[in-house]
Specification:
This protein is mainly α and about 220 residues long. The chain has helices spanning about 10, 15-40, 45-85, 85-90, 95-100, 110-120, 125-145, 150-160, 170-175, 185-215.
């Protein structure tokens, strides 16, 4: 399943998502090549295969341990969408969302995707928040008429990255699988840390927006 093709007249030869994918591929390629060179120079080339296999096995085990949580949240999200609950939440949060995203028209599908992404992050389902985040970016891109990211896209990225979290469900699940004595002891520090990070992200986004607007760069 390929990436969506946008009209070249509006977004250039490649979409923003495609360009971002190239950057990520280059970054990971650089990390892989430099790690191999470092292993050769330090005489630890024989450990690369063993470590790669063990890491791959650990990744598969971790993914399977999260399937239940991810499936549950995606199911709840689909029920909320079809029952109209998502629309109700969107209307309740419309004043708050309008302050953060003034360029998004009222009732636009992007609002619903942003809300679901925010809700998933709020309860610590970072993996479930990813598809909602991608959908939100796609909807925001439909409002954008430039290859440069719009203000709404930058604001959403800042909030999604800082992601206020009340119940870090995924991390608690990982701690349970790791046989932690008290898996939920991180709830308090997590709330404080993500509250500060979200506050800083929102204010930084606002200040950067003012800075570029004053200089006519937006």
């Amino acid at each position: 399943m390929g990436l969506p093709e946008y009209p070249r007249g509006h977004f250039g030869h490649y979409s923003l998502i495609t360009k971002g994918g190239y950057v990520i591929n280059k970054a990971f390629g650089f990390l892989i090549i430099t790690s191999i060179i470092a292993a050769v120079l330090t005489g630890k080339i024989s450990t690369i295969t063993a470590d790669s296999m063990s890491a791959a096995a650990a990744g598969v085990t971790r993914v399977f341990s999260l399937i239940g949580i991810l499936t549950l949240w995606l199911g709840v999200a689909k029920i909320a969408e079809r029952s109209g609950l998502l629309g109700l939440f969107t209307r309740l949060l419309q004043p708050f969302l309008s302050l953060l995203f003034p360029s998004i028209p009222k009732g636009h599908p992007a609002m619903g995707s942003i809300l679901m992404n925010f809700s998933a992050n709020l309860f610590g389902f970072g993996s479930a928040a990813t598809p909602f985040g991608l959908k939100a970016m796609k909807e925001l891109q439909s409002l954008n008429r430039s290859e440069r990211a719009s203000e709404a896209m930058c604001t959403f990225l800042a909030i999604n990255t800082s992601s206020l979290t009340l119940i870090p469900s995924t991390i608690i699940a990982l701690r349970v699988n790791a046989h932690s004595a008290n898996p939920a002891e991180i709830v308090g520090p997590m709330i404080l840390a993500t509250l500060v990070s979200t506050f800083v992200a929102v204010n930084a986004d606002f200040l950067c927006r003012l800075f570029y607007r004053k200089r006519g760069l937006l």
